[in-house]
Amino acid sequence: MQLNTSQIVSQRQSLVVTAQLQQAIHLLQLGNQDLASFIEEQAEENPFVDVKLPAAPALPSSSRNASDDWDRIGNLAADPGPSIYAHATAEIDRLDLSATCRQRAEAFLDALEPSGWLGQPLDVIAMTGNMTIEEAEELLVKLQTIEPAGFFARDLAECLRLQAIDLDIMSPVFEGVLNNLGLLANADLKGLSKACRTDLETLRPVLRQLRGLNPKPGAVYEGSVSPQRPPDLIVTKGEDGWNIDLNRSTLPTVQVRTNDTIKSLRRTADGKAWAEDRVNVARWLQRAVEHRNMTTLKVGAEVVKRQAEFLENGPSHLRPMILREIADAVGVHESTVSRVTNGMLIQTPQGTLPLKAFFNAALGAKGDSSGSAAAVRHRIKQLVSNENPESPLSDDAIVKTLADEGTELARRTVAKYREMLNIPSSVQRRRRAVVAGAA
């Protein structure tokens, strides 16, 4: 074997992700408020960075030609949703109680805990509401029919029992489990099977159903709500079509300081080198912010161009669109579009939405056109809202209606979309209609 040495010359290209490139990528996914915070941090470290924050928006005049930069939702408080007390009050008002019973129901409302349970014994509530124990029990039965099932329960067993009855899964074995929750808490399955007069094979599916129930149905009304921040892009309709612009009322700008005080730092050799480095960083930041704004505006304009029917007619006209389409049209990489759309809010005539919400997969359709998943979910919601409460639409009926309209979907897809929209099954909707007196 003979060994020889040789030299081979080759050329290779590689992308080095510098700190500045990482920052530029990071800027693309920042909303206006986060961008302002980032620039303020840079200004604290770099005396050559001069950040200009927008002035507080003035109140709009009665004229329709008020400043386009005024943030129309900036002065609106975020809607936190109904509290547990407000929800229970609204549900009680739908029970069509007599004036006397409605007044007595206030005692139950006062005793309602954040969990949805009653926090006081029934005899105390009866005394507070000026009623007998029998009258309190009769009224409690009516109050326990409100949604969600489990409200106004006196203990865990009653809360779960109300939900099991509502879901039509109550059975003698289920009742036995509820009467022996202590054995279940101690994981004594043999003792629980004996108490329920059944075997483990029959008991296991009942326990799976039990785990699917909510022991604190009122907790969903007490969660914190993220405040609504101002939009980053604003869409308006002009004489020549839809126009889009950055929300200047929340958009910071970067300038490079060159005043005499800063120039004094350059008198020494060390000071000059440091000042030149900081000036270069400030100029780069200025260009990076401008590039971020330009890219955001281009992506937003292309989205608006393709979703004109949605802006005009609403969610049912949301067309299918993917990131690659926008990337090819704008001339950037697909990952750039993803970063831009992840952090941006856009204000439209149909409401303020995440820019990401406009991207939906296409679904199979008859003919040359295809609908988006979001538009189909909106259509399902419309069909359920307009159905006859006495005869709610089954998933099969929704599939047939959509097929007649040109959209082919499997039944399991309709069921998945219905669950995403928090729409109960047709059986549950029929049961709720009976409870609410609609049928």
Overview of the structural elements:
With 439 residues, the protein is of the alpha+beta class. The protein folds into 3 domains: 19-59 and 228-358, no CATH class; 84-221, no CATH class; 373-435, Homeodomain-like (Arc Repressor Mutant, subunit A), CATH 1.10.10. The chain has helices at 19-28, 32-45, 84-93, 99-110, 122-128, 133-143, 156-166, 172-178, 181-185, 189-196, 200-211, 260-263, 269-306, 308-313, 323-330, 334-342, 373-385, 395-404, 411-420, 426-435, and strands at residues 49-52, 233-238, 241-246, 253-256, 345-348, 351-354. It has a 4-stranded mixed sheet. A two-stranded antiparallel ribbon has the order 1-4. Strand 5 (345-348) and strand 6 (351-354) form a beta hairpin. Helix 5 packs across helix 6 (133-143). The radius of gyration is 31 Å and the shape is elongated.
